[in-house]
Amino acid sequence: MTIAGSSGEPGSPLLEDTVDHRGRPARRSTAGGWRSAYFIICFEVAERFAYYGIQANLINYLTGRLGLSMATAAENVNIWTGTGSLLPLVGAFVADSYLGQYPTIIIATLLYILSFSRYGFVRGYNS
Predict the structure, then answer these.
(1) Of 6, 27, 39, 58, which sits 20 to 30 A from 17 (CA to CA)?
(2) Which of 56-60, 69-73, 102-106 has the highest mean pLDDT?
(3) Which SS3 state, helix, strand or coil, does residue 107 take?
(4) Phi, psi (5° rounding) for residue 67?
(5) Distance from C-alpha of 118 to C-alpha of 124, rounded to nearest angstrom
């Protein structure tokens, strides 16, 4: 990424062609860095734990509680895994074409939190 000032001087605090979530020119001192990386790393770790935790128990749930055959349960797990793998492409399309990066991240995060909190409430209620 190139640095540009008002007259193209090196060492300018502004990043060329980069804006923050409000559309203002991004400043090198406040944009990105480890503050953003901590959020991304923590969110990805939590998301992976949730994904693999559900995936590991899905066959048992489908064959035990729902009474599906092993073949049908395996098919449903494969569909769930494929859908989970392809949804980032849909999210990228929505972010690039319609909503923008930050609103899409916020909406996806809220949907994720709501869906997993609902799973926890239903699981706790039925126990």
Answers:
(1) 39
(2) 69-73
(3) helix
(4) 70, 25
(5) 10
How far apart CA 85 and CA 104 sit, in angstroms, is 17
Q: What is the pTM of this model?
A: 0.57
* Cα Rg of the chain (Å, integer): 21
**DSSP element (H, E) containing 2:** none
> Where does the chain show beta strands of DSSP type E?
14-19, 25-27
Q: How far apart are CA 39 and CA 80, in angstroms?
A: 26
Q: Running DSSP on this structure, what letter comes out for residue 3?
A: B
**Under 8 Å between Cβ of 70 and 63:** yes
pLDDT of residue 5: 47
Q: Which two tokens stand for residue 9?
A: 């001087």
User: What is the rounded CA–CA span in Å between residue 50 and residue 117?
Assistant: 11
Q: Are 3 and 28 in contact (CB under 8 A)?
A: yes
